[in-house]
Amino acid sequence: MMRPELSKHWFVCLLSCLALAFCVFSCGGTSSDFVDNDGDGWAPLADCDDNNSEIHPLAEEIPYNDVDENCDGLATFDADMDGYNKIDTVDPEGNTGTDCDDGDRTIHPDAREIPYDNIDQDCDGLEDDGDGDNDGHSSTLVGGDDCCDSGMEVSSLGCSPATAASIYPGAVEIPYDNIDQDCDGRDYGSSTLEGDEDEDGFATDDNPEGLDCDDTDELIYPGAPERCNYKDDDCDGLTDEDLVDVDNDGSPACLDCDDYDADRFPGNVEDEFFGAYNDIDEDCDGIALKDVDGDTHDGIAAGGLDCNDLDPTIHPLATETCNHIDDNCNGQIDEDFISASPDQDLDGWLECAECNDSNPNIHPGVLVDLPNTFDDDCDGLTDETDLDVDGYFVTAAAPFPAEEDCCDVGTEDVPGCTAITRATINPGATEIPYDGIDQDCSGTDLTDVDGDGHEAIVAGGTDCNDFNPEAYEGHAEVCMDPSDNNCDGTVNEGCGPGTDEDIEIASGAFSMGRDVDESVLNPDQQPQHLVNLGTYYMDKYEVTLADYRRCVVDGPCNLDGIPISSFSDEYYWENQSRGLHPVINITWIQAQTYCQWVGKDLPTEAQWEKAARGADEYGIEVRTPVTCDLANHVELCTQEQCHDDVVDVDMYDDGTSPFGVYNLAGNAYEWTNDWHAATYYATSPADDPPGPDTGSTKVIRGGSFLSIDYYLEVTDRQQFNPSTRNVSLGFRCARVPIP
């Protein structure tokens, strides 16, 4: 076969010969009549310049020299043949060229600009304008401010080729449509949102998806700047944490009267036991405490004349009364009554201040009322009895205590009253419910703590939560209440995500792990074994961001160490549209703290696998193809993500477990309660296995949006250090009903 370069040479020679023959024939001459002055093989009739051997019909055109080398009648000014002459050249017709790169036919004034490649395709003078969507804003990839220019930026919420031109700084934000139109990292704006009373773009946290901890103040919402106001402006559970507090007393410098003294701050205790009479303003009210009882008279210790600065009725201007007290601080007692009401029995008490002025052993100062048929201490009672020495008497004593002791001897007809319990039973005792003892002398033992009219189950009633008046048999379910309001065993059934809704997993056996004959990714999934679990309840959905924020505001949970960003969203934790997305980036301890706040725990491995797998005790197929219609993950064959981040916890109706639990496969890995041990399956108990007693890592289950199909298998076990944080790691809770 002829080589390509020889074939080309042969073809050119053939054309030359044919052209020469044509010229000879057309001129009517013969070869002997052929004239070729410049010796280029072309006769004058075909050769437009027979005096220059470099000019003939097959000569190579040299651009931009104003010479017609190939005799086609045109001098070449368009070397790349794209229809545009080289920039700044002028052709014979006087046209100035505009092609900024005449060696590349893809570059000319009407070419489509390809952003971010450092090439000026459209010859507009900009090396690379970076405005792929032509919205007037260059991409952040080239130093611009457009967060969505190509339509493929995964870090921009709602960015796609279809939305790119409408996304740029300054665009009008359409709240809660899952698109960040104005490139501020959030999906909210000034429009009215249901459940957003203060119109700050955040729904109240009383709503399942809400994030606003104070919906009466438009300056309080997640991510808001902290102001100097003793308020949690950014809804992170902390107050004024971003402000200067030199002495670390919890009061920022802007509010502290002395930010170099930790014992001085607004709200500090300043009373007779701490801070009085030292000429220091501990509570920053502008006044050093000298008048403890607030009667406008400084105490003697502060240089004043108030002889009793704990009693506002006693001071230098008070009216003296007959009470055996120096009311007006003049050093005398009852001086205005001496003549009218003398002390007949000379016991130091005037007649007007005691009950029997004929007996010096009877007056209000007597400490013990003797069994002598007299009211020795002038309290209105005679020979009052307190056999159990609990400070309460069989007969009500005036002025205090005024209530009778219902169990003083130990034989009274009072629930639980015995010689052993009598000292703990009196009108001032704290009632202990359901113990059969009437500690507070109310007449009965406390069996309805919340006062809803329904006795607790432990007391023989039907109230499954006697500490919540909104929970008893027959009550309607309250969706934002973590209690089982109707006492049917399930919490918030039908309420949806963001409400801690759970599902009953009935007692029974199931097959856990993988058979040794199967090909498995990790041997710690073997051996397959039967596990019997008692009835328990599993959260129907992963715990949401809104769920966790409510726990933060309530106090038990915190945002310590949690990055606010997710895999694709820089402001994930502060984005209202993410309220029903799963909590991520939190540690095992933070997850367990939340579960305990709602009266639950992290699920054991066995509880998690049964909820995901079903109750088939003979084993089921665990490796099945997974599509993006069933779970949020990475497809094995294409290595493409179904979504660029975690999604709403109630997504994938067709991918629920046999019990109806959502997203046990994909979306976010989930913490379990168990320590990890590779050989635990070989030794675990058959009934309700709790996991190993100790370990260094905790088991996580379920795979995530970054996991390929294999890691979505219900038997797959992964492990993380309990302090690990990850953008693909969340959790859900479980609970075992109280017997």
The gist of it:
The protein is built from five helices and nine strands. By secondary structure, it is mostly loops.
Across the major sheet, the strand order is 7-6-5-8
Number of helices: 5
Largest sheet: 4 strands, mixed
Rg from Cα: 45 Å
End-to-end distance, in Å? 91 Å
> Could you list the spans in which at least 5 consecutive residues all have pLDDT below 50?
1-32
What's the number of extended β-strand segments? Answer: 9
Strand content: under 5%
Averaging pLDDT over every residue, what do you get? 87
> What's the order of the H and E elements?
HEEEEHHHEHEEEE
Tell me the overall shape: elongated
SSE arrangement:
Elements: H1 4-26, E1 502-505, E2 508-512, E3 529-533, E4 536-539, H2 545-554, H3 588-597, H4 605-613, E5 669-675, H5 680-683, E6 698-701, E7 718-720, E8 729-730, E9 734-735
Parallel strand pairs: 5-8
Antiparallel strand pairs: 1-4, 2-3, 4-9, 5-6, 6-7
Question: Describe it for me?
Answer:
The protein is mostly loops. Helices cover 8% and strands 5% of the residues. The protein is elongated.
Features:
three-stranded antiparallel sheet, 739 residues, disordered N terminus, little secondary structure
